[in-house]
Amino acid sequence: TEGTFQIRIPEGTTVEALKALKSLLLEHPGAQKVLLIFEGAKGKEIKLPFGIGWNELLTRQVHELLHKSSI
Q1: What are the pLDDT digits (tens) for 14-60?
Q2: Do 10 and 37 meet the contact criterion of CB atoms below 8 Å apart?
Q3: For the whole model, what pTM was predicted?
């Protein structure tokens, strides 16, 4: 069974970075569900209304985007 991918959003991530993340995920459509977990916001979680096709390249791109923007 394909599970739900969890993306942890570091505290202090900018709105611009979140918009870029959405655009990036929309470029990889698929059937896998995504759950965003906002660190520092009492574990607020948001299920995305679209599925993605997760792969190693996307993993690296998401990591770079989120960790670059929260500094």
Answers
A1: 999 999 999 999 999 999 999 999 998 687 999 999 999 999 999 99
A2: no
A3: 0.85
- pLDDT of 1: 38
CB atoms within 10 A of CB 12: 11
42, two tokens? 């009492």
Non-local CB neighbours of 39 within 8 Å, separated by 6+ positions: 8, 9, 10, 11
Stated as kind and residue range, the H or E segment containing 7 is strand 5-9
Strands (E), 10-61: 29-32, 34-38, 44-47, 52
Residue 55, Cβ density class (10 Å: 0-12 exposed, 13-18 middle, ≥19 buried) = exposed
Total count of residues recorded for the chain: 71
